[in-house]
Design goal:
With about 450 residues, this protein is an alpha+beta fold. It folds into 2 domains: about 220 residues, Aminohydrolase, N-terminal nucleophile (Ntn) domain (Glutamine Phosphoribosylpyrophosphate, subunit 1, domain 1); about 190 residues, Rossmann fold, CATH 3.40.50. The protein is about 30% helix and about 25% strand. The structure holds iron/sulfur cluster.
Length: about 450
């Protein structure tokens, strides 16, 4: 039940499928329930009663490439020589193609096309043959992972710490979650975040850490603060909503404008708009009203679904914007579809001026670490200058936050972050083979390396 609630709290990170593996304490095989859709759609009355045991892991997922289907829903559960093992993976391996080829040559037979399965095959190798925890050194890319075995639960982060993973305490036991907001829902006490490169083993003896990875520079995904994480979560000791308010303040200082109203694009633009309003003195008004029963457009898998969602997702309060000069604050512009429709909507409802302000720098590069920034050629800022984007959107002005301002708002030093989608500086190199493969997947051609995955609990 706790895992189920945890998945509710983390639903924002993945809405295509959900699942839980539970077991332990009764000598019976682990039980699994997975399905496509949101957590309340996947788990019907009676499903949770079947998930008995003294431990569980769960996962909600969105695919950044390829198809979205039940076969690839997590957690995965496999039988190994050392007993059953379940895995939930958040992130994306960049060397999955070569690892998989190597493992297949050594006799591994893969059940899925998802990169997470590679972790299971690596761990299942005999210790003398490169298996066990030491095998994790072979992984490259972004991975925050939870494993459930017959005697323990293991959580670990890649040595760069791209994706968050934190530890909580509840009723004398321990819980792991991608974001601290999951602990609030179940009244667990936040203990700490796992360090990049840390392998945390939780078993009947309590906690112990191992450090099998090479030491690397920290590279937390800065987009967690901008958009991805929930505002009520804390990452690296900094509350996400506060970081967003500060981004809005930075934005107001960097791109001031004379206007009558600051309007957020909900939900992730809300706190940056508040900060913009506070700093500029321009009144804040949430004139866009969100339909809460639709998923996040950014992470929906097809353009057709995205277009539909853009139209039905937000409605505008005409009387609030009519005859006014509006500053619209949003967290990012990816393809431009959503931003353009917002400007059109505002003008149709009588706004006299529309000034677009974005609380991060222009997205110019693809992400290879588990966030769905598409083929760079589809990224508006990769193809156009800011002036051209402004014209395309039909706005009166546009202003992006600088990388320095964005990082300053987090309170952390720049060298602790990945900013690759903004500046092209990739902390983990990707080879052309991977690049070609992932682009082919996005076009539906390739079979390997499907779906970088997100979120675990
Ligand atoms: S490339 Fe961008 S979205 Fe991807 S991990 Fe780095 S900062 Fe985050």
């Amino acid at each position: 039940m706790l895992t189920y609630y945890g998945l509710f709290a983390l639903q924002h990170r993945g809405q295509e499928s959900a699942g839980i593996v539970a077991g332990g304490g009764d000598g019976k095989p682990f039980r699994t329930h997975k399905g496509m859709g949101l957590v309340p759609q996947v788990f019907q009355p009676g499903d949770l009663e079947k998930l008995q045991g003294n431990r569980a892991i769960g996962h909600v997922r969105y695919s950044t490439t390829g198809s979205s289907n039940l076969k690839n829903a997590q957690p995965f559960l496999v039988d190994t020589a050392r007993g059953q093992l379940a895995i939930a993976h958040n992130g994306n391996l960049v060397n999955a193609a070569s690892l998989r080829s190597e493992l297949e040559e050594r006799g591994s037979i893969f059940q899925t096309t998802v990169d997470s399965e590679i972790v299971l095959h690596l761990l299942a190798q005999p210790p003398g043959d490169g298996g066990g925890l030491a095998s994790l050194r072979r992984l490259e890319g972004a991975f925050s992972i939870v494993l459930m075995g017959e005697n323990e639960i293991i959580g670990f982060r890649d040595p760069h710490g791209f994706r968050p993973l934190c530890l909580g305490k509840l009723d004398g036991g321990y819980v792991l979650a991608s974001e601290s907001c999951a602990f609030d829902l179940i009244h667990a006490e936040f203990v700490r975040e796992l360090e990049p490169g840390e392998v945390l083993i939780i078993d009947e003896n309590g906690l112990r850490s191992e450090w099998p990875f090479r030491r690397e520079r920290k590279a937390l995904c800065v987009f967690e603060y901008v958009y991805f994480a929930r505002p009520d979560s804390n990452i690296d000791g900094r509350n996400v909503s506060k970081a967003r308010v500060e981004m809005g303040r930075e934005l107001a200082r960097l791109h001031p404008v004379e206007a009558d109203l600051v309007v957020p694009v909900p939900d992730s633009g809300i706190f940056a708009a508040l900060g913009f309003s506070e700093e500029s003195g321009i009144p804040y008004y949430p004139a866009f009203v969100r339909n809460h029963y639709i998923g996040r457009t950014f992470i929906q898998p097809t353009q057709m679904i995205r277009d539909f969602n853009v139209r039905v997702k937000l409605n505008l309060i005409r009387s609030a914007v009519e005859g006014k000069r509006i500053v619209v604050v949003d967290d990012s512009i990816v393809r431009g579809t959503t931003a353009r429709s917002r400007v059109v909507n505002l003008r149709e409802n009588g706004a006299t001026e529309v000034h677009m302000r974005i609380s991060c720098p222009p997205h110019k590069n693809a992400c290879y670490y588990g966030i769905d920034f598409p083929d760079p050629q589809k990224l508006l800022a990769n193809q156009c200058t800011a002036a051209e984007i402004c014209k395309y959107l039909g706005a009166d002005s546009i202003g992006y936050l600088s990388a320095e301002g964005m990082v300053r708002a987090t309170g952390r030093p720049q060298n602790e972050f990945c900013l690759a989608c903004f500046n092209g500086d990739y902390p983990v190199p990707y080879d052309d083979k991977f690049d070609k493969l992932i682009m082919e997947q996005r076009q539906g051609k390739a079979r390997l390396l499907e779906e970088p995955t997100n979120r675990l609990f």
